[in-house]
Amino acid sequence: MPVASRSRCVQRILFPAEGDEEAAALYVRITMGTATWARTSIEVKPGSIASLGTYFAAFPAAYWRAHTDLSAVAVAGEIVGSGVVRVCAADEVSGRRVLWSGVVSSGAFTHDIPLQEGTWFWLELEAGEQPLSLRDAEWRADEAPIGTACVCITTHNRETDCIGVLQRLAADDRVRERIARVIVVDQGDRPLCDAPGFDAASAALGGRLRVIEQTNLGGSGGFSRGMLESLSEDADHALLLDDDVLLEPESILRLLAFSSRARGELVVGAQMLSLTDRTLLHSVGERVTRRGFWWTPVEPALAPVDLAVATIETTPELRRWYEVDFNGWWMCLVPLSVVRRIGASLPLFLKWDDAEYGLRAAENGVATVTLPGAALWHMPWTDKDDGLDWQAYYQLRNRLVAALIHSHTARGGGVLSSSFAQDVNHLLCLQYGSAAARRVALRDVLAGPAHLPTALPRRTADIRALMTRAGQVVVPDAELPASRGERRSKAVRGRAAAARRLTAVIAHQVTRPHSADDGSVDAAFTRPEGKWWNLGLVDSATVASATGTGAFVARRDRRTSLTLLRDAVLLRVRLCLRWRRLAREYRAAAPALSSPTAWNAQFTAGEPGADGTIA
Questions:
Q1: Residue 194 DSSP class
Q2: What's this model's pTM, rounded to 2 decimal places?
Q3: Catalytic residue at 354?
Q4: Contact between residue 579 and residue 411 where contact means Cβ atoms under 8 Å apart
Q5: Which of 4, 160, 165, 333 is the most buried (most CB within 10 A)?
Q6: Catalytic residue among 325, 354, 385, 444
Q7: Over the stretch 256-288, which tens digit does the pLDDT of each residue have?
């Protein structure tokens, strides 16, 4: 058995924390027999086999080889009992190769592995006639300093969720040691400090917690405050972290260890697991398509993928190394040296702030890496109604702003036509509030970059009011109108069928006057059914919300639809004609808009007693 010389832990092999049993497949896979485990140890019962070729236990060698100075890694731990230990590897071609196998008895176990041996490494444990235990196992590298981070959390009236994150941060001694400060930017109207459990969580963090209360400036305002406040702390990174997540604290150490060995500055982010289906990997990495300028997963086959079924051995897509354009700010490690050079977020409130920052960092020579094995559980955006509520405004406006600044193709490379198709979809689905919100977005973009800071504290209230006037709000189940159950259609398959259905939808919406509101609706659709091929053929319907409670009530209005369609065309014509000039204006303004000076003016304007006013 080769003896390893590596002494710095870069990744611990852990097992599910208490309460996380439904996520066990992410940590260990029992291929034969049974096993039991605690957080830092596993006992494989006689005659049983356990594979650690899992999401949180295997080592992502391809990423370390691509971005760090590491040439070899060692796996080490304490063996209790006797049995067969196998060191395994995989690459893009081979799903499993045994690099070393031997009978191991009680004592220390270590094994060196050159990184060129594969894209993933892991252990397999096979017990014989007696149990075989592995304790305190970890992946090690040559000694190198590991930096510290300020954890920056933005919260808005999610006291229970946020305190849960603070508790997880405090629960692990090793994680707590690498945290210089926890900065919570509280933008809600219910003070986090008054919530039950806050004092205990604060005490557990040992004086590291700082809460800043400010007016609601969205995710971009909250995370920018955290990044800029971190500059005055004795730390190397700002770790941007959502407040409504279930955290695997080990991920923080993995991000820091990876960053510390990087060949240069890197933004290092975590992947997203589904909070509603704990073994589902929802985001393996994100890119911005240059044609159409829209975010997309780096690998469609992994969007999403159930890691309880798809394994490293059986899934070639999991064995590959992927380049990304940005990492979502659900969990993202940003070097403070990068913040000093390129500033904080643009004042976008929410949506596209993380994507724009990743593109800006890349233009300044800083790549983004989304690191497998570092992750948290988050509510997937596919389970949200962000295209049907006030966020529809930010989806379009911020996409166009990002395209104006970063697209190097003519007029955004199709962003105008593809976003127009989305407007048409909203109109065919009777979602007039979304279309009206997007009309405001187009007008604001045409107003130039000066509108961004002025709109930041007030535009959300404006759009919420617009949605209410349009009737596009979630109605409680008890208040929903009765359904006559008419005209339910199946989803269309194939281009020819889609063309025929679209022709019928357009004919229905343009030629037929809508029916009077008699207090009922034609149909009640589930959320998956609430698409243009169904909604476009009815005059009224309810569509279930993503939360599972309540629904949207949609009623066809031909005059409103035609007016919104006309405006969508005319505003895009204006934007097309002025694209080059606007692109120069937004690019020139971006450095100042993301600077500490500009953000400090926003923070001051929102403070009680300040001279600035919040409209």
A1: G
A2: 0.93
A3: yes
A4: yes
A5: 333
A6: 354
A7: 999 999 999 999 999 999 999 999 999 999 999
